[in-house]
Amino acid sequence: MDSAVARTRWEMENNVQSLTDNDSMFRYNAAEEAAVRRRRPWQADPNYFKHTRMSALALLKIAMHARSGGSLEVMGLLQGKIVNDTFVVVDSFPLPVEGTETRVNVMDEANIYMFDYLEKSQKLGMKENVIGWYHSHPGYGCWLSGIDVTTQMINQQGQDPWLAIVIDPVRTMASGKVEIGAFRTYPEGFKPPEEGPSEYQTIPLSKIEDFGVHASQYYTLDISYFKSSVDSHLLDLLWSKYWLNTLSSSPLISNRDFISGQISDVAEKIEQAENQVQHKMGRFLGGEKKTEESQLSRICQDTTKMAVEQIKGLSGQVIKDLLFNFQPGKCCLPEKDTQAMDISE
């Protein structure tokens, strides 16, 4: 499998769409942008923004930056524009920050770097504003922690419109598809309408409480990706580096700690569910039974996802072994003993 085939597969798995009008998403109209910002329709409707469109170039840059951070959180900013109820992200750039777990610290040097970067990009002709931030959650899914919610709320109050993107580089490596989410927080004190069940995602047991406490303080925007001939050259250059790193690494090895953590987490969830069942033994209330079934169903989804990721990782290793280690002309079967057998005795 060469680089071009791998890139095509990556674009298919992430549903990257080619633009018919190649540069439509990259046209920036300062007057239109200023008019939208003066009207500020999002103040009247907390759910005004519903969509995020991101260039394949920005997506790849975010994925590479998140992957370089390993187990540490990384952070960067998004450049783009507002089109009706949609954030259009055309580019991104990293910030020199430190982060661990659910905390990302923005240092003074990051602010200096940000202003310097924006000044230079404007001199080069890039007129798009900063419209949000991104950061990584290595191994624990795409959602906003309590600190993330506070950070996003402050930014929405001070420089709205503002978007939050979260990416999980560990699960991206495990599944092959970029695990990413786009979010906006509600104003303080706002009570959102009750919604139906959202798409289930695996949350480690140690993070479930933080996830549940703040889940009603923000909402998710759907996210789609596009590419065009405008950014094709940069995309080609970046892809070569991304593909080389992907080819030379194995998710089974690089994600060993993550895999062990997943198995441990599932074991803890099973034990917790078992204890709850034993505690409620003898009571046959319909609501409780439904809750128990739902909990076991989530555990089954976690284990199924984990198994699929492992199978995909093993398949990738087998293919790489055949491509790079197979030697034509050499028989793979054990050599037969060519020594003549003495049967005279």
Concise overview:
The chain has 345 residues and is α/β, with parallel strands linked by helices.
Secondary-structure map with pairings?
Elements: H1 3-13, E1 16-18, H2 30-39, E2 51-55, H3 56-68, E3 75-83, E4 86-95, E5 98-100, E6 103-105, H4 108-123, E7 129-136, H5 146-159, E8 163-168, H6 169-175, E9 179-185, H7 205-214, E10 218-227, H8 232-247, H9 251-254, H10 256-279, H11 286-325
Parallel strand pairs: 1-10, 2-4, 2-10, 7-8
Antiparallel strand pairs: 3-4, 3-7, 5-6, 8-9, 9-10
Helix pairs in contact: 3-6, 3-8, 10-11
Describe it.
The chain is of the alpha/beta class. The protein has helices at 3-13, 30-39, 56-68, 108-123, 146-159, 169-175, 205-214, 232-247, 251-254, 256-279, 286-325; strands at residues 16-18, 51-55, 75-83, 86-95, 98-100, 103-105, 129-136, 163-168, 179-185, 218-227. The strands form 2 sheets. Strands 2-4-3-7-8-9-10 form a 7-stranded mixed β-barrel, surrounded by 4 helices. A two-stranded antiparallel sheet has the order 5-6. α3 packs across α6, α3 (56-68) runs parallel beside α8 (232-247) and α10 packs antiparallel against α11 (286-325). 28% of the residues are buried.
